[in-house]
Each structure stands twice: as C-alpha cells, then as structure tokens.
Amino acid sequence: MRLLLLFLCGALTAASARRTFGIDYENNCFLKDGQPYRYISGTIHYFRVPAKYWEDRLLKMRALGCNAVQTYIMWLWHEPIQGHYSFSGSVNITRFLTIANRLGLDVILRIGPYSDAEQDMGGFPAWTLKERGIQFRTSDPRYTQLVKTWWDKLLPMIKPFLYTNGGPVIMVQVENEYGWWNPIDKNYTSWLLSVLSLFSGNLAQSHFGDGIVYFTTDPAQPALVKGGHIEGAYASVDFGSGLDEKAVGDSFKIQRIVSPRGPLINSEFYPGWFTEWGEKYVYTPASAVIKTMNAMYALNASFNIYLVHGGTNFGYAAGAEHIGDQPFHTVTTSYDWSAPIREDGHTIGKFFEMQQAIHALTGKPIRPLPPPIIRQAYGSIEMRYYGTVFDHLKELTLDKPVHSRYPLTAEDVDHYYGFLLYEVKLPKDAKITINATDAINDRGDFFLNRRIKLLSTQRAQSQQTVFVIDRAHYDLDENQPLLLSILVENQGRICYTPRLSDYKGIVQNITANGKALEKWTIYRISFTDIIRKLEEAPEELQLRVRESENDLTSMTKFIPSLFVGEFDTKGRTVGDTWIDTTDWGKGQMFTGKAFGLGRYWPSKGPQLTLYHPMVQAGKNQLVFFELDKPGNCFGKKCYAQSVLNPLWIQ
Ligand SMILES: *[C@@H]1O[C@H](CO)[C@@H](O)[C@H](O)[C@H]1NC(C)=O
Ligand SMILES: *[C@@H]1O[C@H](CO)[C@@H](O)[C@H](O)[C@H]1NC(C)=O
Ligand SMILES: *[C@@H]1O[C@H](CO)[C@@H](O)[C@H](O)[C@H]1NC(C)=O
Ligand SMILES: *[C@@H]1O[C@H](CO)[C@@H](O)[C@H](O)[C@H]1NC(C)=O
Ligand SMILES: *[C@@H]1O[C@H](CO)[C@@H](O)[C@H](O)[C@H]1NC(C)=O
After folding, report:
1. Which residues are catalytic?
2. Which superfamily does CATH assign the domain made up of 398-524 to?
3. Do the two domains 379-388+527-643 and 398-524 of this chain adopt the same fold?
4. Collapsing DSSP states into helix, strand and coil, what is residue 169?
5. Domain 38-362: which CATH class?
6. What's the pLDDT tens digit per position in 123-168?
7. Ligand 3 pocket check: which of 300, 302, 361, 362 to mutate, most ligand atoms within 8 Å of Cβ?
8. DSSP labels, 603-637
9. Which of 243, 303, 461, 529 is a Cys-bridge partner for 266, taking CB atoms 3.0 to 4.6 Å apart?
C-alpha cells in the first residue's frame, strides 16, 4: 500500500491541475492537488438535524474555522424496510453533500456499514435481525450479502461526490472502531475495503477508485488500533479534551504503531460527551477543548471535532448501551453533546472561544455567522386528557393485530420501533403465578382486563419478574375471563459492544403456573392515524373518553394515555421552541403532523425539555403518550410549557 500511495503522491505533484488527494508519507501530511493539506473538521449528523437547517449549521461550522465536515451515513434511515430505500427529505444525503460542496467544505464520509453514533443498533436496520443467528460485523455470508446489496445501492450515489470527480469527498472511513469488536475478523474488514477500493480488490467490484484516502478509526489504545487496522487503509485514532501536550503526543504514538508515517489524525476529538437517561449532563469547558486542540495543531495533526453540532434523536432513533455488567441505558433524545453549536443551532460562548482559538492557530479570516434562528416561548400549554391506550386501540393499531400461538418479537412482526401491545387469556386457576423473567425488552406495563394496572417492569441486568394474580383479590370467580395485556416499550437497541442482536417486544415465553401462555394477540402501536384524527375530528375521540372515564381518577390509575394540547404563534414571529416536560412521568411526544419529537423522561432526567423545530404559523397541536403520570396538574388541568432554552436537571 505504501508503494502505491507514494506513487500516487508523485503523480499528484506532477499533474497538479488534476483534482487529486492522497498521503505524503515523506512529509507526514496530506496532499491535495499536489499541495500540503491538513484539516480541522467538524462532525454534523445530517440525520439528527432538520434538513431546513443543514445549510445554517454548515455555515456556522465554517464560521468556527472548520474546512471540512465529517458525517456517518446511517444505513437504518436509508433502508428502513428491506429493499425499500429512502434518500429524500431529512435523509437526502446527496443534498447534504451538495450544500457542503457549495460552501467549500471538504467531506469525510464514514460509510459504515456499522456506525454506532449512539443510534438504534449502531445504524444497522432492525430488519437485519429477522435472519436469526446472523453474525454482524463478520464474514458471515448472511451478513455480507446484506451489506453488498446496500452498498450496491449507495455507492453509485456517492461516486459523483468524490473529490476526483469534482465533489467534496476526500476521505472514506471503513467500519467504525472495529478494534473494539470481538471476535476480530480481518477477512471481513479487508472484504469491505475491497468492495470500496482498487487498493486491495478486483477492478470489476470497485465502486470508487484511487484519489481518495480510505481510513480506519480506533481509540488510542494499542490493541484497539491494531485490531481495527485494515491492510490498505490508513489508521487514525480518537481521543478527547483535557489532554496536555504530553498526553496528546502519547496518543499519537499509538497511531504510529500502525501508521509509522503519514499525517497524524484524531478522527473523533471530543469537546463533550453524550448523555443517557439517569445520568448527569456534563458540560466540558472550552479551556479543556482548546488545550488539546492547540497541542494537536502543534504536532501538525489533522483533527475532527466530534461533534461541532450534535442535534436530536427524534422519534425512536436513540440507541442504548448495555456494557459489561452495567445496566441497560438509553441515550437521551437530546444529542447536544456539550457541542459548541447547541442542539437548537444557538452558538454558545464555547463556540466563540473555540473560534478565536482556531483563528489564532490557522490565521485564516473569521467568516460571518448566518442570521440567528428565531426561538420563541409560547408559554403554558394545557394538555387535555384524551383517553387510554385501550380507549383508542382501534386507531392506534397499525394494519390488523397479529395472532400467534407464542409471543413474537417486534422484528418478527415487522414493527421495528416504538410500542407493541400483547394480549392473552389467563387460565381458570384461582391463583395464577405469572413468570415473565427476562421476557420483556425493554419496559412492560401489565394490565388485568384492560382496567387494572398490575405492575410496570424496566429492563435491568437481571430481571426477575414473577407475580401472583389472585382472583379472590379482585372478586372474580373462575368462570370470569381474565385478560392479561402487556404494553411493551422498545427503548432503543444496543448500539455498541458485541450485544448488537437486541430483539424487542416479548422475547421469551411467559408462563402462567409453569405453562407457557398461548394464543396471543399482538397490536402494533402507531400514533399516525390517531394524530390525524385528533386534527380532523377531535370531538369524536373526546366523546369516547367522556363515555369512559374522563377525569383525573382514571388518569391517576396510570394507564398509558394520550394528552393533547395546543399553542398559537398568534402575534409573534414564528420560531422554534423547547417543550418543558417537568413533573410529567415518561412518554413519547409528537407534533400535530405526527412528527416524533422524541422520548421524554423527566422523572429520570437529566433532560427536561424537548427541542421543537417544527412550529408552524397559527395553531400547533402537541400530543403526549404518557406512561406514568400527567404533570403540572392543578385541579383537573395539566400543563406543559413552551420555553426559550433547554433545561437539564443539575
Ligand atoms: C435530493 O435533493 C436534491 C436537491 O434538492 C433533489 O434534486 C433530489 O431530487 C433529492 N433527492 C430525493 C431522492 O428526493
Ligand atoms: C479468513 O480467510 C482465510 C482464507 O480464506 C481462512 O483460512 C480463515 O479461516 C478466515 N478467517 C476467518 C476468521 O473467517
Ligand atoms: C510541521 O510541519 C512543518 C512544515 O512542514 C515542519 O517544519 C515541522 O517540523 C512540523 N512539525 C512537527 C512537530 O512535525
Ligand atoms: C421464572 O423463569 C425463569 C426463566 O425461565 C427461571 O429461571 C425462574 O426460575 C422462574 N422463576 C420461578 C419463580 O418460577
Ligand atoms: C415457547 O415455548 C414453545 C413450546 O415449548 C417453544 O416451541 C417456543 O420455541 C418457545 N418460544 C421461545 C421464544 O422461547
């Protein structure tokens, strides 16, 4: 590989009129069009930012002093259903690349197929789990065939955007932190590279060609860098803020184990970190970021700030972590990351401190910022009770319920994200011991006869769920039928570590007095239809609620329920807002157009507010699917707030 690249460098200098990009091993730098090149890049994930703001965020990144942008391509967004591709609207990757190109930002693409990035299943679409026993990130042909089919679709779209073809893409990362994986399968990673490149593959298979640098990224630890290294791809490292010159030098020495010459690269330089529900939000001060940035720059390193702007895990997209013997945890809806450009696009003080520091390093003029994004606080929003999940089961059920002898997983019934309701009849015994140990991924709410809340379970390391239903306790004799309902919430698939095969829904049999329960009905819960109906014919739904039990007594029975509110932009410039959920329990939030603003869980924290960038002129409906308890109630009225700024529990 060295020989090939050295030859390339020579060719670059000779024909500098051609658009070329490569590595100068002699001078430990990149060569772009024959000239020495280095980058200060920033990561923005297009799939975490509303498409209308891509240009705004990229302009801000450029104003920070970046000359390149790095993003993952997140498979799950582009092939949500096997063989059904999506490249439009909020995941129009060619549009994102076109804007970057127009703004003069070079692009570093992390093409996967695995990404992590704290997304559901690290970016793998959940339908890949339908192939039972599939060995992810290995040469297992069941897996590589899926990757091949996906890349055959993706790579021709990327090709015109390569630098040598007149586009902005100078580098392509293969896999992601593969050194962490266990077991390491170098056949697999070499195969990935061969599909992508000429370097180690055969010509007929190649999608790209020379003139771009393929690379790997691993944490700066010898075993990880060696494990992740692919023969023919350039190895880089990642590490965070707060490191002084010595520590930075030591980290790059680890890159030198596998990349003895060539540019030093930190592909993920962390100015902050992500937050999980139940953790603390950690603010990383600019001083720690600048100290390490200066040290890297002094060593002529190129680095990528991961992240310059984090964005939002809208809908159900946030992934989960379940590392070693630590409990299962979901990443918050906010992916703010303590980044210099806040989740709502606001440039915080840290942005300007970093901007000055980068300016001092590069000496390049500071580019102006685009006009600020308007934000508004629309005040109190009364959230009216609209009935329980059972009141509206018809509207909430996607297609028809599925019938099965034994429970099926979410993947089995092609309902990859969100909620499922499972129902089964119980035996006639006077006392029934239910054993649902390790059967529920991830939260289960158990009900008797659709009226009595029995208990709620939350996935943990080891979860014993055994309880007794005593008919006498409910004044029910053996002739009266008992229906067990279990509402199961998928809280995001594990995105990191070997536990990637994270099936959701009911994943084991549930027994009653030692015998597996049979004849299940499975409802796939979707909020799209009911939200449309709430806009078109709310009276009808309201009537049904009134006929059942429209009062706080039923609300406080903690049966998952819908709450609907409205705010009006009347008399004000339309602007984005933050929805404060303080004092509510846990649930899912939607706009009136059924756009998923994400999970809220203020009772767990630390995130209290959800970013709402979809405000439209006039009336805006807001829908909560609340699992635990309504919040901010005074008498029979409960409220949420529209506020200007994000709030975190300290
Ligand atoms: C992506 O955006 C470009 C530019 O706006 C547009 O021409 C193209 O049709 C879009 N692609 C898809 C699949 O919608
Ligand atoms: C890698 O490929 C070689 C040659 O085909 C084979 O001998 C070896 O067992 C493979 N290793 C793995 C981990 O699949
Ligand atoms: C950085 O690059 C410059 C210009 O090529 C060179 O003079 C200097 O020695 C390099 N510094 C380090 C620490 O490699
Ligand atoms: C419940 O089921 C689990 C898993 O099958 C089993 O290990 C456990 O012993 C059962 N508990 C009781 C009380 O039967
Ligand atoms: C449930 O039990 C049945 C009967 O023993 C068995 O065939 C089936 O595989 C079990 N399902 C799971 C998910 O363990």
Report:
1. 177, 268
2. Galactose-binding domain-like (2.60.120.260)
3. yes
4. strand
5. alpha beta
6. 999 999 999 999 999 999 999 999 999 999 999 999 899 998 899 9
7. 300
8. TT-SB-EEEE----SSEEEEEEEESS---SEETTE
9. 303
Q: Is 463 near ligand 4, meaning CB less than 6 Å away?
A: no
The domain ranges of the chain are 38-362, 379-388+527-643, 398-524
What is the C-alpha separation between 619 and 623, in angstroms, rounded?
13
Using the structure block, give the residue that is written with the tokens 């009006």: 568
Can you tell me the mean pLDDT for 591-615?
Answer: 97
* Token digits of residue 265: 């690269």
Closest ligand 1 atom to 89 CA: 14
d(CA 154, CA 156): 6
Q: Is 645 in the pocket of ligand 3 (CB under 6 A)?
A: no
Sequence letter at residue 236: S
**DSSP symbols for 564-590:** EEEEE-TTS---BEEEE-TT--SEEEE
Ligand 4, atom 14: closest residue by C-alpha: 435
Q: How far is the CA of 13 from the centre of ligand 3 (A)?
A: 19
pLDDT at position 117: 98
Q: Between β-strands 466-470 and 169-173, what pairing exists: parallel, antiparallel or unpaired?
A: unpaired
Measured CA to CA, the distance from residue 90 to residue 96 in angstroms comes to 9
Q: Which residues pair with 44 in a beta bridge?
A: 309
Cβ(300) – ligand 3 distance below 6 Å: yes
Contact between 367 and 564 (Cβ < 8 Å): no
Nearest ligand to the CA of 297 is 3
- CATH no., domain 379-388+527-643: 2.60.120.260
How confident is the model at residue 210, as a pLDDT? 64
Per-chain mean pLDDT for the chain = 92
Which helix (H) or strand (E) segment holds residue 599: the answer is strand 596-600
Residue 516 in contact with ligand 4 by CB distance below 6 A = no
Question: Looking at the chain, how many residues does it have?
Answer: 650
